[in-house]
Structure formats: C-alpha cells, structure tokens
Amino acid sequence: MNIHEYQAKQVLKSFGAPVAEGVAITSADEAESAARSLPGPLYVVKSQIHAGGRGKGKFKELGPDSKGGVRLSRSIEEVVANAREMLGNTLETKQTGEQGKQVNRLYIEDGADIDRELYLSLLVDRAVGKVAFVVSTEGGMDIEAVAEETPDKIINVPIAPMDGVTQDDAAKICDALELTGQARDDGMTLFPILYKAFTEKDMSLLEINPLIVMENGRLRVLDAKVSFDGNALFRHPDIKALRDETEEDAKEIEASKYDLAYVALEGDIGCMVNGAGLAMATMDIIKLYGKSPANFLDVGGGATTEKVTAAFKIITADPNVKGILVNIFGGIMRCDVIAEGVVTAVKEVGLKVPLVVRLEGTNVEKGKAILDQSGLDITSADDLDDAAQKIVKAVG
C-alpha cells in the first residue's frame, strides 16, 4: 500500500526524523491560511499523487509548457495562485503514463536553503536477505539516470537484522554520503531512526529523494515515498487508515475485497489464473504470440465460486479487454469450482468478447462438463500453448 508524501513525513516525524513544517489541503480556499501558518518567506506547493517525477511533470490541461507539480513560491499570493492552478488538474509524469493523475490534494511546506541534495532509500535486498540502505551523493530528480550511467555512485549498505543499524553501519552511510560536521552527527542519529520506522511499520520501501544538507549544516527529509507490505496491514490500523482509494485502480480495490491478487496492465487480453508463477507464464506466452495481457490476476489455491465470479466480473469491467484467457492447473484449486464461477459470471454480466478456457488437474472432467453443458460460447484449449494461440487469434 502506498501513501502520500505528507503522510509519509508524518510517520517519519513520529519516529523523530527531521521534516519541515507543512499543511495538506484539498481546496484552493485553504491555501492562504495554510501558508500563513508556516514560517516562510519561501514556500513549496507540492502535488500529492501516488507517482514520482512530480517536479518534472506537466499538467495536461495547461499544455506542454506548464510548470511542474512541485513549485517554489516566494509569497503567499504565489502560493494561492499555484494552488488554484494545480488542484483539480491532471498531472502527467514518467510514472503516471499519458493518462496522468488528477491532483486532489496539495502539500504546502516551508521552504529550505539547500546546500546539497542526497539520495537515500531502504528496501529489502533479496540477494542478501537483509534490509539495506541504498545511498548516493547524487540526489534529486535524476537518480534514475545516475543508476544507469554511473552505478558506482550508488552504495548499498545491508543491515544485519539481529543487530540493527550499528555505529559502524551509520558511519559507512555517512562516509558514502560524504557527510561531515553537524550533518554527520545528524546522520548518525537519523539512520537508526529510519531503520526503526521501516521495520516496525512493515514498510517495503522507504525512499528519501532528496535528503538534503541545508546551508546551516543540518540534515532534513525533503521528500518521502513510502510503501507498506499489504500482508502486514492488519498489524497497523493507523497505517491502514491512511489509504487513499482515489489514487488506486477501481478494479484493484474491488479485487482486494475478495482477496484476489490483481494488477491492472495496459494490454487487451484479460487473464484469470491460479498461482503467481502460472500467471506470469501465461502473460509471457501471450506476449510471445504478439499480444499483451490486460491484467495479472491470481485467484489463489482456495478460491470459491463467489471469488471466481468476482474475478471474472473485474476482468470484464475493463473496457480495454478484447478477449479473456482462463488458465487453471488444479491442485488445491478444483477445476469444477472455476468452471462454475465462470458460468455464473458470464450469465450475470454476459459475454461480449472471446473466451478461451484451459483446465487441467483436480476434477478437470467435471469442470469441462460444466462448461460444455452451459450453452455458452466458450473455446476449450488442450494446454497453455494452445490456449494462448487461440485467444490471440480470436482477438485478432
């Protein structure tokens, strides 16, 4: 689960991380009072969407020459003008794609005198089985270019889980970021705080870009992007309450109600599969034969007829879907349950696109019989290769 920047900063501040004062607003009428509550005279007006690259983004309604989604303002009047221009418009960044995202809230933050911009993130390094700090002296909006062109400038510091961030670990991070004086002292305090926040709140990603050294020598978290492990949210009702469903795909929200693993993609062939590995293989073979999947959908090993029906409805609700491939290898999952769910869903919502079904495994004959006797226009397939070729051909 992702949260907004201002929410991420609230979480980090609760652990003792240094962040600027700021106020989140959802209406331009709130901009003046928000700005007056801050020290000033420099303010930053930040679009709050679940996507990176906001500073270099463009508002679609304002044309290609519009200012970005993060704007410096040197007066309260400029804060208000920027807020009126940004709220309600669609911000397009590299991460949103061409469709962009509507800006429904802004974060008005006190400005900072920046001496240096650094990059810092924490993530699970699966290669070593540890949480690791990933840091660079080359912070700012072009960190992706740094990673591609000068990867030696990005340093990885894994943390032993039984020890946490030791003084030696913190010193290594300080050295990698070339911190001295007061900034180094701040780093020795800050890095254990960030690790504590990451582990105690079950984060899957904590990215601070930039982490800044101000002209007075102090460190400050200038931006923050945080993602949480969805499987651990039951332990954190305070974090779960931060969820902003307006930033999520409606189909993914519906899928979460039925514990379905669903991710919307940009292709035109809807997929319903059991098992993540088989789902990935199904998407790969669709690409092999010249088409693209419209989604990743894993109904799991213990799916009921109700869950399968819901899954089918979610797929058909996507206007980009021009064909559907159901690929089930029944172990724990029974083929007859899948077949009953498909038939129930088709009878409820109708079938307006080609449907190819491949069933194999537990109760496969019962499943095939249910489909054959349904009277529905369903194409059967013998194996995955056959199924992929048939749906690609049917979509054309």
Automatic annotation (TrEMBL):
Cofactor(s) required for function per UniProt: Mg(2+)
PANTHER family (alphabetical): SUCCINATE--COA LIGASE [GDP-FORMING] SUBUNIT BETA, MITOCHONDRIAL, SUCCINYL-COA SYNTHETASE BETA CHAIN
GO molecular function, one term: succinate-CoA ligase (ADP-forming) activity
Documented EC number(s): 6.2.1.5
Keyword Ribonucleoprotein: no
Binding site for Mg(2+): 209, 223
Protein name (record): Succinate--CoA ligase [ADP-forming] subunit beta
Family membership: Belongs to the succinate/malate CoA ligase beta subunit family.
Keyword Lipid biosynthesis among UniProt keywords: no
Alphabetized Pfam families for the sequence: ATP-grasp_2, Ligase_CoA
Binding site for ATP: 46, 53-55, 109, 112, 117
Subunit comment: Heterotetramer of two alpha and two beta subunits.
InterPro entries associated with the record: ATP-grasp, ATP-grasp_succ-CoA_synth-type, ATP_grasp_subdomain_1, Succ-CoA_synthase_bsu_CS, SUCC_ACL_C, Succ_CoA_ligase-like_bsu, Succinyl-CoA_synth-like
Class of enzymatic activity (EC top level): ligase
Involved pathway(s): Carbohydrate metabolism; tricarboxylic acid cycle; succinate from succinyl-CoA (ligase route): step 1/1
Keywords, ordered alphabetically: ATP-binding, Ligase, Magnesium, Metal-binding, Nucleotide-binding, Tricarboxylic acid cycle
Organism in which the protein naturally occurs: Fulvimarina uroteuthidis
Signal peptide: none
